[in-house]
Amino acid sequence: MTKDEIVKVLVEQVMAMGFRIRLITLDAGFYTVDMLNFISQFKYIIAVPAGDVKVFEEFDGDYTTNSKRHRRDEQVKFRLLVYSNEKVRRKSLVYFARATNLDLPKREVLDLYSKVRGPIETSYRNIKAFLPFTSSTKFVFRTLIFVLALVLYSLYTVFKGEVGREEFRLLLILLFPDLFNPENFTFNVIKALIYTIDLFLRR
């Protein structure tokens, strides 16, 4: 699936559950003309690679895309916000850009993007902290490992405010008796992997 197809499917799923979408935020990987055309029907903030718009100064104004893959009448006009952040080590300014259709002060738009995207990025980092290192390129194996990480992270999120570290460890032992028995746990993970591969092969 292309990136705009992925977002369209997710939006359809959200709306099918009866929710009303008040704001869409996306990172720079989704900055395309097709994506901008689609999300323009919603209130949105999307990160923009500053190198793509070639604006390396504080900026708040109208901008029109210049994609070579689209005709002139297919380009998208939007409000572009560019801001700088100083890198302490290099002592140089780095510029970041955001595209939006919100009619709010620049600072409010940037703060809103950070408020929405910040927790998402943090949760990804926390989930990855639970992931065992693997260089495997097998999709099924990586899916299994990621699901395991999601389970552990979800348990940690639910219980971290209720129980201490030792109590959480005991909870894991009760839920996964072989977790702290490396030989049995490894054997069971491999067995689960074999069953999972077999299931995927049957589909």
Write a short abstract of this structure.
By secondary structure, this protein is an alpha+beta fold. It contains seven helices and five strands; from the N terminus they run αβαβαβββαααα.
Describe the structure.
- With 203 residues, this protein is α+β, with helices and mostly antiparallel strands.
- The chain contains 7 helices and 5 strands.
- It has helices at residues 3-16, 33-39, 50-53, 106-130, 139-159, 165-175, 182-202, and strands at residues 24-26, 44-48, 59-64, 77-87, 92-100.
- It has a 5-stranded mixed β-sheet.
- Strand 4 and strand 5 form a beta hairpin.
Main attributes?
51% helix, elongated, 203 residues, 7 helices, alpha+beta, single chain, five-stranded mixed beta sheet, 2 domains
